[in-house]
Design a protein that fits this description.
- Strands 1, 2, 3, 4, 5, 6, 7 and 8 form an eight-stranded mixed β-sheet that branches.
- Helices cover 44% and strands 19% of the residues.
- Residues 202-214 have low confidence and may be disordered.
- It has one domain: Aminopeptidase.
- It is an alpha+beta fold.
- Helix 3 (37-58) runs antiparallel to helix 4 (85-93).
């Protein structure tokens, strides 16, 4: 199956929200947010719809032609909360709203403010499509753009598996180590990626045997 990466649009909001909800259903932070499986399955699509809409309005959203994966990239600084976020979040999450607000607070507290960067807020691949290089394709697509423009990236890994994936893609662990959600909650690993040098056309030509020597 092709790992082609394309830009998402407004018509993809429902499909991509559902993909994130499915991919994130059993992650430790998800179970911390809502312990009950059925309630989590009911709440998550509407919650992640808020996230997708914000990224489409202010950032960059990548997906695949079959809409089985999604990456939400947000520019920092310059990302105000979505209009009416608090009231909408409360309406969507109901009795679990305080947990979602505690998650927001923990993420905001540990988010670096040292320099402008792009925040990988969400990377999700539908479970049946995982381990086929789709997540790597989504990462590579925007990393290439960041490298060309000399921009850094930041994310919070929510599992040891995802942490190790991002380490293989040039991210480094934050010096303060993992932080934890309240009430004996699960860990997040803050990770930072510096832009990589982009070879010049001349250098590339030398390496491949093409182009002219000076």
């Amino acid at each position: 199956m092709s790992n082609t990466v394309i830009l998402a649009g407004d018509t993809d909001i429902s499909a991509l929200s559902a993909v994130i909800a499915e991919a994130f259903h059993d992650l430790p932070p998800s179970r911390w947010l809502i312990a009950d499986d059925d309630a989590r399955r009911q709440v998550f699509p509407a919650y992640f719809r808020i996230c997708v809409e914000q990224a489409l309005a202010c950032g960059t959203v990548h997906t695949t032609p079959d809409r089985d994966a999604v990456a939400l990239w947000l520019p920092v600084p310059g990302m105000p909360p979505p209009p009416g976020y608090l009231s909408r979040l409360t309406a969507v999450t109901g009795p679990w709203a305080s947990r979602f607000l505690a998650l927001d607070s923990a993420l905001d507290t540990h988010h670096p403010t040292c320099s402008p960067h792009y925040h990988l807020a969400i990377l999700a691949v539908r479970p049946g499509r995982q381990n086929r290089g789709t997540g790597t394709a989504l990462l590579d697509a925007w990393h290439h753009n960041l490298d060309e423009h000399g921009q850094a990236a930041y994310l919070e890994a929510s599992s040891e598996q995802s942490r190790d994936l991002y380490l293989r893609h040039g991210y480094r662990l934050g010096p303060e180590g993992p932080f934890f959600l309240p009430d004996d909650g699960p860990a997040f690993w803050p990770m930072w990626r510096e832009p990589r040098p982009v070879p010049s056309a001349l250098a590339t030509g030398r390496e491949t045997g093409h182009g002219k020597a000076p």
